[in-house]
Amino acid sequence: MGPPGAGKGTQADRFARSRQVPRISTGDVLRQARGQDAELDRQARATMDAGRLVDDDLVIGIVRKRLAEPDVKVGFVLDGFPRTLNQAEALDHLLDDRQPLVVVDIEVPEETLLERLRTRRVCAKCGTPATAVLLVCSACGGPLVPRSDDDLRVVQERLKVYERESAPIVEFYRRRPSFRSVDGDQLQESVAADISSAVASVLGAR
Ligand code: AMP
User: Fold this and answer.
1) What was the pLDDT predicted at 206?
2) Catalytic: 120?
3) CA gap 122, 166 in Å, rounded
4) Which atom of ligand 1 is closest in space to residue 48's alpha carbon?
5) Diameter over CA atoms, the chain
6) Is the pLDDT of residue 4 over 60?
7) Catalytic site includes residue 52
8) 150 pocket-lining for ligand 1 (C-beta < 6 Å)
9) Which of 79, 161, 184, 196 is deepest in the core (most CB within 10 A)?
10) Interval 6-46: pLDDT, tens
11) Contact indicator for 155, 4 with CB cutoff of 8 Å
12) Is 160 one of the annotated active-site residues of the chain?
């Protein structure tokens, strides 16, 4: 969990690679649908470009379908889902006997978030995240462009939406023994190390 710019995508990717488990990002699935899945594209594009949340049923459907695939049996990382209480409740049902769901909240002050989102770039070719100091994508050499929803007005809307819709889920999970929060205002490596220890402290205790 964490607001836009907290580093969820980067950390989820690192963690999933290090544990060799799939990373499920609803934002990535929705972005990939652009130009490929006409129906999904039609339903999600305008909402995403405005910085608002797409329909609960749509994203729950994406996650339900993905969790039915065999490669998630060993475990998985969810990135950007759940984002509403409705989605969090649906996830509990979907997981059923696959608990514990380890929830890690990445905490970052708002000034840092705004600065990160202002300088965030993404490869136009392969979607790898980067910052404005790089000129080309380190993964594939493709051109780096701002994400279409990182425009300042949209960013402010996304932060507002986070506070309204998603921050209450942190409170929903905080009471559980499998909840941890980490300081996201540190070097990427330190955040990654803290997330690893946080997850180990939940799973190790079992
Ligand atoms: P992200 O890449 O996770 O920041 O997601 C980008 C955009 O996709 C969000 O601003 C939403 O418009 C949409 N989106 C991604 N995940 C969800 C979700 N779980 N619920 C609703 N909308 C989502």
Assistant:
1) 54
2) yes
3) 24
4) 12
5) 46
6) yes
7) no
8) no
9) 184
10) 999 999 999 999 999 999 999 989 988 887 888 888 888 88
11) yes
12) no
What CA–CA distance (Å, rounded) separates 145 from 81? 25
pTM of this structure:
0.83
Token pair of 146 as six digits:
């701002």
- The residues spanned by each domain of the chain are 8-203
Q: How far apart are CA 157 and CA 98, in angstroms?
A: 34
Q: Which atom belonging to ligand 1 lies closest to the Cα atom of 87?
A: 19
Q: Report whether pLDDT(147) > 80.
A: no
Q: Which of 14, 66, 116, 158 is catalytic?
A: 158
Whether 176 is a known active-site residue: answer no
Query: Quick check: bond before 129 cis, omega within 30?
Result: no
pLDDT tens-digit map of 111-142: 899 888 878 788 888 878 777 667 788 889 89
pLDDT tens digits along 181-192: 999 999 999 999
Residue nearest ligand 1's atom 19 by CA: 81
Write down the catalytic residue from 14, 31, 83, 121.
83
* Residue 192 DSSP SS3: helix
Which residue is closest in CA terms to ligand 1's atom 8? 27
CATH number of 8-203: 3.40.50.300
- Show the tokens assigned to 191: 């955040």
